[in-house]
């Protein structure tokens, strides 16, 4: 088996007599519209994306002492809480003096206030700062120091924004006290929170698969009925009767009478089912398999419990007098974490700590910047849970990705220290015999493969080579590499034949762990849009896991997946056709590149064009070549065009990759595209030109990826037959769903929890 925007510039500040104010357009609910190209940076203060990328500090002191941008710009950030209280539960805002009420507050944080004005016209041209007062239920905070944020005066009753400047620690406590009361009353929600995506699953086989996986994983669920909450787990799925058997640890469970609404967690989704009937026996509840499931996608990245001893150290961006805070990290993912904090830490959604030092254990530390996404209410132990999204600084990116990958998939590891064992696995699994090859053909690449395998762990931006080791050696391997601007390639999957190692309770655990580690790895890449693979459908499991999944997506009309059978044919650089070609071949001109891009876009779906960098602006793969070169590695593409009497007839997209990146030299590939009705007649001339191109780069052979029906040109070109895998492409948007699909396939093989 082989697998082988130009952002808008930030809004310009307008100097208004000593205070810097941004012209912004607030939304009708009182939230400033975040402009593309603007990224918040310091405690609610935004910085342009250009500035963000330039900030790399050599020490924590340098970062903490950075001069902040004008505080009025904080209005662009969605910090704090949206408020929906009325009457006694509303927070009001006054300016100038406590009784000069402007209106009800619609969004509030210690850095910004948005108000629905009670008067039709409010003069917001005042440039100086002035006293601001907040009031609720007879309590007043102020005077605070504030300034207007300019709004659209032509919009009737447009929300009015005020930037709060120099809020003291005590004032911050008072503001967050108001917000805490509003949260308890249910009239406040985090302004930065996003609504989950929902869909309905009605396919009976899919529903059975989901519940089989949930049952085997022992995930938790909650029964909700008329105010009752009972925490349960799905103990067993009775396949013969279609009944679900739930178990609760409550000593005296009160399930009540049906109907029941039950929420249960899958791999990375929350599912809700409606049970119109059910019966209870002690601590057990029996319900029928539902005809429909409601799925709520609740995370892009899977989160797992943090290892013991992981802590976050940071200073509050607004009130450094609180000193250095050190808080326990409870769970983490590539892009976020949850930590246990104290209410007096005064954290709130939208707060942007510019430097968080994470203690990983064994003396390791990584530096990240973060954004507070939620803060829980006070728990029984007096603490609050604080969730953050985060981004590592470039100097610590590799260390952070390695740490998270190992934490999330502890049974796997990277392969840099196991090259000989990995080579032995390829021999045992028959990997070297795929497509009519022989093990001897790969010996010349062993040194290149070993060298790259040792470097790959240090370059997570381009590689993820994962293995599943046991006492008897490596059980399986799967690799990812990034050959295109927005796509990662899954390849080099191999598994030891025969029985799994002793003590392994789950037959599918090996492949599931490898899939989770490698498919989740690209999710740390902000440019990740696509996964590409070349999969052999002769393997029944691969066919069901990959080909059938993509076909199901395509049948449903999704533009996020694509699969089709192709042929990987081998061409040797020294085997010229010997033909006299009536074509001239040379590098494509700008006009020919445009013609090629338009032709490809007409013949292939968008996901093919986008994932393989066949758009006009990415045909030369310049940024990709530069990135690989920055790590001392080869990656190159050239477009050759065959012309007759000056008319472009066909084009060859010729690529080259670092030796050892793929043992079947999958990155040394050529694609041919006809630009005229009889353009295939020029293919032999193009392939001879490609042979010269590869020979000049010391490549003895390359792959021709045939994606058409073939024809006479195949024999004319002197090509050698090869395997016919499926080209398989899915969008990064589908990766969470695909991994849930893999989890269901592999967990379903346990069988111990169903009857």
Give the CA-CA distance, first to last residue: 33 Å
* Strand order in space, largest sheet: 13-21-18-17-14-15-16-20-19
| Low-pLDDT segments, ≥5 res | 1-77, 749-755
Shape: globular
Region (Disordered): 1-34
Biased composition (Polar residues): 13-31
Organism: Corallococcus exercitus
Protein name: PilZ domain-containing protein
How would you characterize this protein structure?
With 755 residues, this protein is an alpha+beta fold. The chain folds into five domains: 72-190, Thrombin, subunit H, CATH 2.40.10; 197-297, Roll (Pnp Oxidase, Chain A); 304-404, predicted glycosyltransferase like domains (Thrombin, subunit H); 409-531 and 741-748, Gcn5-related N-acetyltransferase (GNAT) (Aminopeptidase, 3-Layer(aba) Sandwich); 567-723, Aminopeptidase, CATH 3.40.630. Helix content is 22%, strand content 34%. A hairpin with a 2-residue loop joins strand 19 and strand 20 (284-288). Helix 4 crosses helix 15.
